[in-house]
Amino acid sequence: MSQDPSLVAIAATARWRARIVAAAASAGITLADPLAGVPGIRVLTCARGDLAAIVPRLARDGEPSRPAIGAHSDSIADRELRDAVADVAALLSLHGNVVLDLDAGGRRRPPARPDVVVSAGPSRPQWTEPAVTLPVGTDRRGGPLTVALTAGPGFEGALLELARLVEADAA
Fold first, then answer.
1. Which helix (H) or strand (E) holds 119?
2. Can you tell me the mean pLDDT for 126-133?
3. Which of 29, 53, 60, 155 is most solvent-facing, going by the fewest CB within 10 Å?
């Protein structure tokens, strides 16, 4: 599925997609889920700026308010994308989050998987776990710079809150 890089893509389970669509409706935003009720990770898209209205309306099922966050750095070859990921990690740390460098310390002992991972947005995402990809700027050739936030199970609300912070900063 081809993704418009100017839109925010939210990959979520059927339960979370239903919650997101309901929150969007309560905010007066039309957001359709053509695969409502279909199990598995599926994608919803919304316009830039919509997360600011949707996320505050979502209930947070008792998940931790400060998830462990990790960000890739040296493993991203493209300098502009690496800088975009570093900027997002720095923004999240300014909001009181501790962000671990997932590429630090060599390959001998990989760090434990954090609850939320910040990385470069793939051009063809696989959508195997809850994630949000969002445009954060343009590269020197005018193409979009896209960053991905991916969450482990149970951190969907935190994922959307972090994405809302990033989107607000990129606006």
1. strand 116-120
2. 87
3. 60
Mean pLDDT of the chain: 86
CA nearest neighbour of 133 among 66, 23, 145, 90: 145
10 pLDDT above the threshold of 90: yes
Beta strand 69-71 pairing with 99-101? parallel
H or E stretch at 42? strand 42-46
CA angle (89, 114, 129) in 5-degree steps: 95
Indicate the DSSP class of residue 37: T
Phi, psi of 112 (to 5 degrees): -65, 145
pLDDT for 63 equals: 64
Q: What is the pLDDT of residue 67?
A: 83
pTM: 0.85
Beta-strand pair 8-12/69-71: unpaired
Q: What count of other Cβ atoms lies within 10 Å of the Cβ of residue 111?
A: 13
From the list 132, 113, 112, the residue with the least C-alpha distance to 121 is 132
C-alpha to C-alpha distances, 83 to 54, 67, 86, 110, 120, nearest whole angstrom: 28, 22, 5, 22, 10
